[in-house]
Amino acid sequence: DVYLLESGGGLVQPGGSLRLSCVASGFTFSDYAMTWVRQAPGQGLEWVSAISGSSESTFYADSVKGRFTISRDNSRNTVYLEMNSLRADDTAVYFCAKPIVATMCPDYWGQGTLVTVSS
Amino acid sequence: EIVMTQSPATLSASPGERATLSCRASQSVKSDLAWYQQRPGQPPRLLIHDASTRATGIPARFSGSGSGTEFTLTISSLQSEDFAVYYCQQYSNWPPFTFGPGTKVDIK
Q1: Which residues on B lie below 8 Å from A110 (Cβ)?
Q2: What is the average per-residue pLDDT within B67-75?
Q3: Rounded Cα–Cα distance for residues B55 and B48 (Å)
């Protein structure tokens, strides 16, 4: 079975930083791109970032470009999201997701980790 | 950026009824369209990918159709566990991947 477990969320002040982690199991991690999607309280889904299986390519939403960095460690089956210069509108549950092979359509999602940016 | 829209915003229906949800893309996404169900406090659950292919373990009462810019998710007979929010997402032209705003299916 595929499992994705996010961690690292919490309360942070505006301008602060946080690093999220997502540990994966149940599939050959290095064969898959991975993606982060967030959901602000009571709102819809917003794609944040994606990374190829080899880390060769990374992609970001305009709303986080220059502030967030996605990375992965295939030896630890883990994908990371380094978040800097956090703003109140970054407050959301952050989900990591694994796509269907050869597509970028997420088929498995973690339970999410809540990031709250507030003073 | 491809903009996804969904209608209606809320659909009120009774158990056993048929529900039809619509999703429209601002430009063609071919068949690179997914539907997700999200219950409160849960992550999204993939229902349909490639516009009409049910994901593993998804009941046959869920079906998807369409291509290009117009898509439909049909729930043939609503069960109590189907009352949730449904999102469409395109993965044809990215980045960014884009989601629709969602349709809430609630009990009439």
Answers
A1: 43
A2: 98
A3: 5
